[in-house]
Amino acid sequence: MNISKNLTILLIAISAISAQHIPLQGDISILVIRTSFAQDDDVSTTGDGQFLLDAYEGECTPYVLDSPPHDREYFEAHLQALDSYFSSVSKEQFGINILNSLVLPIDTLGSYSLASTMAYYNPYGDEELQELRLAELFRDALQAAYVDEGGIDFDAYDLITVVHAGVGQDFALPFLDPTPEDIASAYIDSNLLLEQLGAAEITFDNGSSVSSGIILPETQNHLLFDEADDIFFGASDPCEYQFALSGTWALMMGFAMGLPPLWDTESGESGAGVFALMDQGSNNGRGVIPAPLDAWSRIYTGWETATTVGPTSDVNLVSRVLAEDQIVRIDIGGSEYFLIENRNNWLRPRVDIDSLRWRDWGDENLYAKILIDSIGATVDEETGVLTAIPNYDYGLPNSGLLIWHVDEEKITAGLNDYTVNIDREHRGIDLEEADGAQDIGYPSLNPFFDPGSGIWSDMWYSGNSEYYYANPAFLGQPMSFGPDTYPDTRSNSGADTYISIDNISSAGDTMSFTIANSMLADGFPDSSLHIHFLQDFTGDSVPEIIGGKDSLWWSSNDTLQQEYFFVTPSQQFLIAASADEQILENFASEYLAYVGQTGDSLDIHIFSFESDNFEQSWSRRIEGDLPERIWLYPEGDIVQLNWWDSFWDVDPENILEISLSDSTYLLHNGTANLYLADENTLIYRTRFALGEVGGIKRKVTDYSVTPETIDEAIGLENFNFVNLSAVDLDLDGAVEYLTVDENEAIYVFNKNFTFESGFPQALNATSPILARDLFGDVHPELVVQVDTSDIIVLDWQGKEQYRLSNPKGSELRMLSQYQGKNCIVSESSIWLFDEVTETNGNEWTSVHHDPTNSRYLTAFVDLQISNTSKLIDADRTYNYPNPATEGTTIIRVFVESAEEVKVEIYDLAGYFVERLQFDNLIQGEVNEVVWDVSGVESGVYFANVKATKGSDWENKIVKVAVVH
Q: Where are the beta strands (DSSP E) in 38-145?
């Protein structure tokens, strides 16, 4: 039984982290103040209030952890142990300046005596008073030392540590605790001092002051006190329960450094378990071998850096102790990413502490014996303190990969109030447990085995049998962490990342694995790319990538190779490709326009694609503000900057066109360019194929619509649509309007302004709705970005097909083709779907339709003739909401070939109530009529929907419940 896994940290001095912390680089000086209490015989505390100064002669001899006397040399040895730990885990970048640190009083056996007893400073059961007394203990100890020494320059030290007589109230031992008024270890910061003592710092006559520090006990080894007989009564080998002070001191140092605790500070349940210093790992190796900081914390301190690796990659990762910066980062999306590190606890090849314990099982006081004799620890000859360990991963339960799931947004939100890991369903720093149990932090029903603090099977390595119990479908295959494993690689929002970490090797000094992604194109994600759009400039019908922020670049479609061609004068700019001379056809662009804001001026640059690169053909600077949208005229020599408010009512003063045919500024009335519109207006053209095969005719119809048009048509006020796009979603030859309101819900209307089935949806959309056939059938899919940065793909009926995890700040850019496949493009990523499909123009691929920003939809679709054998579709005839509780309900009918539809309402007794008439009936579409039920009684009603065409008729009875 590994006792250290049954210990729970019970820190109670938790307040908001102040801005004042010890530095994270270099060596710091520590002032240690030894403090004793009034001597007592209280049964509620361990010891008598005085330091243990007599040599230990108990049954654990000679293998004793933190053996007394606990004199000045003992605490100096612990400072050396602290320095060894931090120097090792920081790769020599942080440690304790032993020469400039000081343990007071100078007298070897001395201490500063307080007037109160130990129990006074931790009154049982009163948490509010306990925090006050901790602040008082810190102040009283400093003041006692200051008076006894005739003044101390506290400002000469980076950190003040008060060590008091007795044992810390820091563990929930698996036995009855008869001493509940022992004092908990604590980090005292300025906020706690201000809250409890009324001042953010303790000041002294010599001008020095103290605003933060640590409170520690003289030891964590209960076996050194007489109370051990009661605490460990009945234990077969009490010496197995020894613990050293080093781990607790390192943990408190972590607080002083500004590191967040990784356990649930409200419940005390673990969050990262034995795998991190800032949780149960502080007690690894009975407190002698505190775990190194987790990968995120080591990066946060600046001691190590991570290498971001994307798919497809082969990785060889050296163990933490053998090399620096051996942390791999894999971006997930949003503010999330994985950190992978190789941790190895071998004393020698494939031998660890647990191996030695199994070999010598049955020996008394075995664990302490192994620590002192077998792990190569440095032992101080005078005090017996273990002052250095060759590898602080020795205390881990196994060797292998640790895969951390990091959410920076969650960390930022919880860093100042210690809540980074307070939610075990959504931790800021979460360990992906290879055994699939994800049980760290959950209570165990087994009193002798507690996986809630982390166990051997949580680590990733080939041969981990527990992994295959959770993933039986992978039996016989190499170990993998991916979309279909448990745990899986989804983001915290549930979005799919499609990341796979495959072929995980056996544990060793170097471990190997591969990183793949079944959806992302190779080389993505890459946050440095800043992709704008894909557009064909070479005339080969395959679009090139255009991207950049400080500099514009382009790349061919078959491989990502950036070719820079322009250093941008400003990072506030718009770019657009030129439309073909036949505006409504999506052929190659010849020109690229850049318009950037520099002060009060606009820099305008035009580039043409020549000789396999972009060459600047014209530039100019004018006064003005960056517009909402630019559009490059078909000739490639005019840039449209500003837009009029009304589509038909053109104000020439608001149109600025810059001619490249020298220096002429042309103002037009816009009549030649009526297909241009403001940022929310869309124009679309439908071309229907009519007639028999061999006798095809073309019917061309142009439309325009604005958000206000829809607002007026559906009879709603203050709908506040914020953008608009369009596509023929159901392939019936008529366009559907796609829009988002100010509450970030998405809507799809048909041409009679009736909601399409499956809409609206409250998705928290932050982008316009894009549409293109990506997979499966010829219907366009709908693509929208939401507030988590995820990108959601809906089918044409509104059913979610994909939720793609996308890096935070990476905006959805467009739908296009890449490497012969349909794709979704964000600023940093390209996701690949089916082979490229021909859409015949039935697509809305970017915010303003396409890279030309035309906002003009041309759809070449076959007109679907309604089913002449049916008048209505009974399966799509119903009412909603049902029951009607808000005063109205809507009768919804899908009309096939009916010429007239009426609804007659009857009550349950068969009495006629009301007749409703459908106006402006549209065949082949959903039609709706509203029934006002505010004046009828609650009850059940029957709506007889009757459709007629000449002498033919059909009907359907719809049952309607009304509840007031």
A: 94-96, 102-104, 112-113
646: nearest Cα among 704, 600, 593, 560: 704
Element (H, E) at 893: strand 888-895
Q: Do residues 770 and 782 make contact, with C-beta atoms less than 8 angstroms apart?
A: yes
Q: What amino acid is encoded at 7 in this protein?
A: L
CA dist 191 to 187, 197, 199, 846, Å?
11, 10, 9, 50
105 phi-psi bin (left φ>0, alpha ψ -120 to 50, beta other): beta
Q: Is the previous residue joined to 312 through a cis bond, with omega within 30 degrees of 0?
A: yes
Q: Is 713 exposed, middle or buried (0-12, 13-18, 19+ CB in 10 A)?
A: middle
Give dist(CA 676, CA 650) in Å, integer: 10
Same topology between domain 709-862 and domain 872-962:
no
Amino acid, res. 740: V
Report the Cα 382 to chain-centroid distance in Å.
50
Give residue 660's pLDDT: 32
Burial tier of 914 (Cβ tally within 10 Å: 0-12, 13-18, 19+): middle
CA-to-CA distance for 563 and 561, rounded, in angstroms? 7
CA-CA distance, 393 to 291, in Å (whole number)? 6
Amino acid at 117: T
Give the model confidence (pLDDT) of 916-953 as tens digits. 999 888 887 888 899 999 999 999 999 999 999 999 99
Q: What percent of the chain has pLDDT over 70?
A: 85
Which uninterrupted H or E stretch holds 835? Answer: strand 830-835
Q: What is the pLDDT of residues 249-267, one digit of tens each?
A: 999 999 999 999 999 988 8
CA distances from 777 to 772, 835, 837, 916 (A): 11, 12, 10, 38
Q: Sketch the domain layout of the chain as residue ranges.
A: 3-258, 271-276+291-345+391-518, 531-673, 709-862, 872-962
Instruction: Give Rg (Cα) of the chain.
Output: 36
Helices and strands counted in the chain (H then E): 11, 54
φ, ψ for residue 300, nearest 5 deg = -60, -40
Beta-carbon contacts of 715 under 8 Å, excluding residues fewer than 6 positions away, are none
533: its two tokens: 């759009």
State the pLDDT confidence band at 825, using cuts at 50, 70 and 90. very high
Q: Which two tokens stand for residue 608?
A: 């043409």
With H, G, I as helix, E, B as strand and everything else as coil, classify residue 434: coil
| Spatial CA neighbour of 792 closest among 803, 781, 808, 777 | 803
Is the Cα torsion angle 162, 163, 164, 170 positive or negative in sign? positive
Are 454 and 440 in contact by the 8 Å Cβ rule? The answer is yes
Helix (H, G, I), strand (E, B) or coil at 566: strand
pLDDT score of 231: 80
pLDDT at 571 over 50: yes
Residue 683 pLDDT level (bands cut at 50, 70, 90): very low
- The reported pTM is 0.83
pLDDT digits (tens, 9 = 90+) for 280-300: 999 999 999 999 999 999 999
- In eight-state DSSP terms, residue 768 is P
CA 677 – CA 657 distance, rounded (Å): 14
- Secondary-structure class of domain 709-862 per CATH: mainly beta
Computed over every residue of the chain, the mean pLDDT equals: 85
User: Torsion angle of alpha carbons 719, 725, 728, 733, nearest 10°?
Assistant: 80
Cα–Cα distance, 802 to 693 (Å, whole number): 39
N-to-C CA span, the chain? 64
Fold of 872-962: Immunoglobulin-like (2.60.40)
- What is the length of the chain? 964
Percent of the chain with pLDDT over 90: 62
Q: Which residue, among 863, 664, 880, 639, has the nearest Cα to 754 in the 3D structure?
A: 880
**Amino acid identity for residue 910 in this structure:** G
Q: Which helix (H) or strand (E) holds 614?
A: strand 613-623
At 724, the pLDDT band (50, 70, 90 cuts) reads: confident
Query: What six digits make up the tokens of 857?
Result: 């939809």
Q: What is the mean pLDDT of residues 363-369?
A: 91
